Amino acid sequence: MIKPFEKPIYVTRPFLPPIEEFSAGLQEIWDSQWLTNDGPVLQRFTRQLSNYFETDNVCLFNNGTLALQLGLQGMGISGEVITTPFTFVATTHALYWNKIRPVFVDIEPDYYTLDPEKVEAAITPWTTAILAVHVFGYPCKLDELADIARRHNLTLIYDAAHAFGVDVGGKSIAHYGDMSMFSFHATKLYHSLEGGMLTFQDSGLKQTLDYLKNFGFKSELEVVMPGTNAKMNEMQALMGSLVLKHLDEIIEKSRQIEILYRECLKDVPGIRFTPPLPEGTR
Ligand SMILES: Cc1ncc(COP(=O)(O)O)c(C=O)c1O
């Protein structure tokens, strides 16, 4: 029998920036006494992410689940959506809360992402969108899914919860599909304590998403639509902004750990690794 470990061994632990950096940021928040509602730290963080992802079409949320839920709502997705069962439950829950019927299609065996060959057969007159997941940060079959979406006039949405920092063909994975959701939950390689982000192609969506995440407020006096509370606060924005500065070292450390796993497990019978990343993927 295997002897129990004396201390737990974690699959992953959140990256924490040096505490001095966080304290300096807290001082700024204490000075401004602005804790949430589109404060200066959030505005700065949003600009940093815009630069990082090379698009103005970013919208921040208090978590990835609500980002995805409101993203679907903002795009008016309804009826049936083709999606994957091999994901975290939040992908399907985001559909559920929009009264959308999830239609599950199996995954391909290499990277565990939605199998484009099976997607087409699942399309019905009620299908409005495909919601695919970049599982563990492995890019979906981007070209194949884009081709199916174009031919059938479907919206293509990516749950990119695991894919912060992934580039394909020289640009961020955020630039593929009509919309992508990134989770900044503490368990992710990149995080802001909790948090989420949508990136999207249609600039016109930004206003709707801003309303949806803030009770539909257009101004202090005017509510133009029903919304909810899904705003990111200043502490989250501060953490996100600091972790972003350390992103390269976090990715490099993770890469080294992966090399170790592959090396140490390679002779264990029954273990199969994902193939090397497709060319042009970082
Ligand atoms: C694939 C996937 N989708 C959605 C989510 C939900 O993100 P969040 O925890 O930020 O709400 C997660 C992670 O938690 C996830 O792994």
Whole-Å distance between the termini?
Answer: 40 Å
The order of strands across the largest sheet is: 1-9-8-5-4-2-3
Which small compounds were modeled alongside the protein? pyridoxal-5'-phosphate
Assigned CATH superfamily: Type I PLP-dependent aspartate aminotransferase-like (Major domain)
Overview of the structural elements:
- The chain is of the alpha/beta class and 282 residues long.
- It has a single domain, classed as Type I PLP-dependent aspartate aminotransferase-like (Major domain) (Aspartate Aminotransferase, domain 2), CATH 3.40.640.
- 35% of the residues lie in helices and 13% in strands.
- The chain has helices spanning 19-32, 40-53, 64-74, 90-96, 116-119, 142-152, 205-212, 234-245, 247-265; strands spanning 58-61, 80-83, 101-104, 127-133, 155-159, 167-168, 171-172, 179-183, 196-200.
- It has a seven-stranded mixed sheet with strand order 1-9-8-5-4-2-3, with helices on both faces. It has a two-stranded antiparallel ribbon with strand order 6-7.
- Helix 1 (19-32) packs antiparallel against helix 8 and helix 2 (40-53) packs parallel to helix 8 (234-245).
- The radius of gyration is 20 Å and the shape is globular.
- The protein starts with 18 loop residues before the first helix and ends in a 17-residue tail after the last helix.
